[in-house]
Sequence to fold (228 residues):
Amino acid sequence: DAGITQSPRHKVTETGTPVTLRCHQTENHRYMYWYRQDPGHGLRLIHYSYGVKDTDKGEVSDGYSVSRSKTEDFLLTLESATSSQTSVYFCASSRDPPQPQHFGDGTRLSIL
Amino acid sequence: AQTVTQSQPEMSVQEAETVTLSCTYDTSESDYYLFWYKQPPSRQMILVIRQEAYKQQNATENRFSVNFQKAAKSFSLKISDSQLGDAAMYFCAYRSLTGANSKLTFGKGITLSVRP
Fold:
């Protein structure tokens, strides 16, 4: 399977603190994505990237920013975490569409 | 915008039996891909099977097969000879072929339990 690593796997933090989640892929995939998974909602796209320094918003992007300075790394930042951002976050990567997306193992983020 | 609907939140199947998970979608596009992903308790998202909309033949991967009805916009997953390891949440997903926004649109998922 595609080599996608997310870090950290678990994080607990307090409201108002900044949080950065990291996604690293070793497949040289052009596309990378950040999703959040919440009960009753499936997975929803936060942001995605279609190349180095090329990013765009998904359907639930408010409160999140991303950066991609290298092909292999895609960072998701919560500038000031809120309790509503408690979720499981998944990173995915793929070659050009319509090739399937391959997912990391997820990060469970709890904001108290 | 595309939508994906999985109307059954939970299903149960006896080990060794066959179960079908339903999925419908809405789109105005003629070309697209459909996927089923499996998420076991380990939380991994595992690609189970995919179907290209332009292909009439239903995709098959070992014990997993789909019933793709393009006109009805239906994409169901059949699991034959169910095993305990099939217990998981299953997500149906749609991916457009056009545009830079090549995101997956997911259904809300269905939890499958397998009775020994």
The two ends of chain A are 34 Å apart (CA to CA). Chain A has a mean pLDDT of 93.
